[in-house]
Write a structure and sequence with these properties.
Elements (H helix, E strand, L loop, with lengths): L1 E6 L5 H11 L4 E8 L6 H8 L3 E3 L2 H6 L1 H9 L4 E4 L8 H6 L4 E5 L14 H9 L4 E8 L9 E8 L6 H27 L6
Parallel strand pairs: 1-2, 1-4, 2-3, 4-5
Antiparallel strand pairs: 5-6, 6-7
Helix pairs in contact: 1-2, 1-7, 6-7
The chain binds 5-O-phosphono-beta-D-ribofuranosylamine.
5-O-phosphono-beta-D-ribofuranosylamine binds next to α1 and β5.
Length: about 200
């Protein structure tokens, strides 16, 4: 069974959707949740779900040795970013090659890159009067929102949308597709690091 670590900085609704979906699956389980924000809402969700959670400062996450040691001791095979607000540093990429996934709340390559997160994305989509937005699930490399795409899914942008209503529609797409994309990636493309 594949062992997953989720990295999250915020509310954690995707982390919860992934954990709940995989709890019903023989393929994988969420071994732990790591956050770089002491006040992140994801910590309360992890408590409720009974998933161990750990806080590391931004400096510790960037330097990577302490969190990577923890993940090694837990036998983690795959890392899933779910609203994690930092660039992934080189030691992570070397320890988990092609084993770090991210989700972005837009159709990349549009509306991605540094500074394009959260409501900034949805505000830009609305300002450009796009008819469609969506999500991109992709492998992580050394650049923001870059790396091989695994899944893209779209939804309409309505003339009456605000950043909040669009974010709500995007979250629904994310909660449906991200857990399934992770399961698919594990089943079809992921050689296990730890047997
Ligand atoms: C999601 O919209 C995701 O695409 C982006 O950050 C947001 C996290 O939301 N990377 P949540 O914390 O999972 O609710």
């Amino acid at each position: 069974m594949t062992s997953i670590a989720i990295l999250a900085s915020g509310n954690g609704s995707n982390a919860e959707a992934i954990a709940r979906y995989l709890a019903q699956s023989p393929l994988a389980q969420v071994a732990c949740i790591l956050t770089n924000r002491p006040d992140a809402g994801v910590r309360a969700r992890a408590e409720r779900l009974g998933i161990p959670h750990y806080y590391y400062s931004n400096a510790e996450m960037r330097e990577a040795s302490a969190p990577l040691e923890l993940l090694g001791s837990l036998g983690v095979d795959l890392i899933v970013l779910a609203g994690y607000m930092n660039l992934i540093s080189q030691p992570w990429l070397e320890a988990y090659p092609a084993r770090i996934l991210n989700i972005h709340p837009a159709l990349l390559p549009g509306y991605g890159g540094k500074g394009m997160y959260g409501h900034h994305v949805h505000e830009a989509v609305l300002a450009n009067r796009e008819a469609t937005s969506g999500i991109t699930i992709h492998l992580v490399d050394e650049h923001y929102d870059h790396g091989r795409y695994l899944v893209q899914a779209s939804c309409p942008v309505l003339p009456t949308d605000t950043p909040d209503t669009l974010a709500g529609r995007i979250h629904q797409l994310e909660h449906h597709h991200y857990p399934r994309a992770i399961a698919y990636y594990i089943e079809h493309e992921l050689p296990l690091l730890c047997l």
